Amino acid sequence: MQEITETAFFDIMIAVLVLADTACLIIQQEWQSEDGTLDDAQLWLRGTSAAIITTFGVEFLARCIAQIGRGYSWMLVIDGIVVIGSFVEVFWTAFAPSSSPDLLWIRPLRGLRLLRAIRNAVSSCLRRSSAASIALAGLARCAKPMLLALVLTSIVFMLSSVIVTLQVPGLLDEIETDEVKIKVLDKFGTVFDATATLMGAIAGSNDLGYLCIELFAESGHERLQIALFLGTVLFFVLLMGLSLAGIICGVLATQLIIIKGDAEIDGGSVSFRRNKLIVGSLDKAFRAAGHGPADNIDWNDIRSTLAVPLDDTAVADTEKVKEELNELLVAKPGEGAAGGPEHDDATKELSLDAWQERVEQMGEEELDDSEIEELSKYRCSLHDKGVTMEVLKSAYHEMALFGPVCVEDFILSVFKHASNVKTLPILAFNHQQNKVYSRLLLNGQVVDDGLREVQTRIGALQALLPDMIQEAEATSKDLSELVALEDRLEKKKEALRALIAEKEQEQGPTQIPTEELVQAQHDGVALDEMLKDLEQQVAQMEGHGASCATAAPEASEDVAAVVNSLADEMVEHVWQLLLQELQHAERGVAGKTSHL
């Protein structure tokens, strides 16, 4: 029964019968007599209605039989109530025609069949058209945003009604006819009446149009209030109509776009799962046969792993089957498999033109009638997943053109031929190009990581460069100060020597005591050593200027402190000697002068 009740012809037939039954019901309601008497036309209508009801009874029994074992159906229960009520009406009017007017409460049940026809039409349309399903889903998802849009539109309607209502008093002063005034007050007397009038005009009511025509007849050159009122009403009606239509169409179009995108994403997910299942099934089948991903295989291995003979008698003659299948191959991969390394080297040494010729040959290779006939004797174990023997043969032949075929290469080639994802550019490449492409991506990633590390280090150096420049400037300043200090000490040393020489010339060398002369020589030697130490410090700082520039600020501060302390000691010692000489010179004590 399911083969009959679930066909398109059956649905169309039931829809036609529902329309015919509804037409008969309407005619009976309009033409029935009050006393229950029947004329020829009513007899024909009643006979037609009885035949249609009987047909619905047979259809209901067929649907009940088809529903056995499929669970409960509330639509079938409603159809049963309608069919039983219809039969009650038919038998009641047959035995008591005069009581036909008393059955008015049963006849409306037959109108419920219209709901069934609508439901069947909608379900059939949705089942056979994906666009209709998307449109219905879009309408369902528009409920919430459409409700918000209607709330905003109603607020704007209320504001427009307030503006129109405020113009009514001035409008009534310019209207002369009392009948028109009453109509204006009925339509725009309150804010709610004005809102209902505007919404009715947008919905298609003609009442506002007739009122505007009467107001236009009352208008003139001196009645500007009527013209302003008419313009305001027409403007708000046009504006709100366009806004409401735009909001509805915009929300619906947005939801349709979103639903269509979701449907495409779902379709892509289904395709991805199917393709993943193909690769996983192939890998599982070869692993169960004892072939690893890197093992080389030939057509016999593929046949023994994936091919299932359709004729059981062909299994006995295994050697003959192998020979027949091997003859189908244009390229003989068995010979290349025997000399694997040599074949690989020869393949690597092919020129670009030779590779292009092989790729073109691979694309132009097709199965002839004899090959198809031989392959038709077998069926792939993954046939339910879209993998056929023709796909296996084409994939193996494509990879055999480039040398020995390993399991991994063969699985990828089968995936390229059997996959329903045809928009991915990577599937247009053969396996050798895919490997080169993956290596390029890997090397590019390594180079990119190196560049990022170099950029990081350059950024760190740039961040340290201002500090290094400041340290170099501070070191240069310290060196200039040390050179100036050395020059001052040299000048003071020369001045002291000139002063000592002058004193010796004035007093004579014989007047100088031996102890003072020894002390003076000792002080001179100490002063020379201090000057030499200072010169060495300056030379060291000039020779290591670069290292001082990168050194820490604490190191430069320590060197400056040592040099300053040494200079302060030398200056203090020299000034003490000068002070002693000046004191002896003032007292005029002979034999107490210094002979530095």
In short:
The chain is an all-alpha fold.
Beta strand %: under 5%
Computed Rg? 55 Å
The protein's oligomeric status is: single chain
Reported by name, the CATH topology of the largest domain is Four Helix Bundle (Hemerythrin (Met), subunit A)
Low-pLDDT runs? 312-352, 359-365, 422-430, 551-556, 589-596
Q: What is the element string, with H for helices and E for strands? A: HHHHHHHHHHHHEHEHHHHHEHEHHHHH
The top-level CATH class of the largest domain is Mainly Alpha
Residue share in helices?
Answer: over 70%
User: Strands of the biggest beta sheet: in what spatial order?
Assistant: 1-4
Number of DSSP strand runs = 4
Distance between the termini: 140 Å
Overall tally of domains = 4
Major sheet size, sense and barrel closure: 2 strands, antiparallel
Number of helices: 24
- Label the CATH architecture of the largest domain: Up-down Bundle
Mean pLDDT: 69
Helix vs. strand class: mainly alpha
Overall 3D shape: elongated
Explain how this protein is built.
GO terms for molecular function: monoatomic ion channel activity. Residues 479-537 form a coiled coil. It is found in: Membrane. This protein is mainly α. It folds into 4 domains: 2-128, Four Helix Bundle (Hemerythrin (Met), subunit A) (Up-down Bundle); 140-266; 289-338 and 352-428, no CATH class; 475-587, no CATH class. Helices cover 78% and strands 2% of the residues. The protein has 24 helices and 4 strands. The chain has helices spanning 2-5, 8-31, 40-67, 74-95, 112-128, 130-141, 143-166, 168-174, 178-188, 191-203, 207-218, 224-288, 299-306, 318-327, 333-338, 340-348, 352-364, 369-375, 389-400, 407-418, 431-507, 514-543, 545-550, 553-587; strands at 296-297, 307-309, 378-380, 405-406. A two-stranded antiparallel sheet has the order 1-4. A two-stranded antiparallel ribbon has the order 2-3. The longest helix is centred in the C-terminal third of the chain and has 77 residues, at 431-507. It is elongated. The N and C termini lie far apart (140 Å). Residues 312-352, 359-365, 422-430, 551-556 and 589-596 have low confidence and may be disordered.
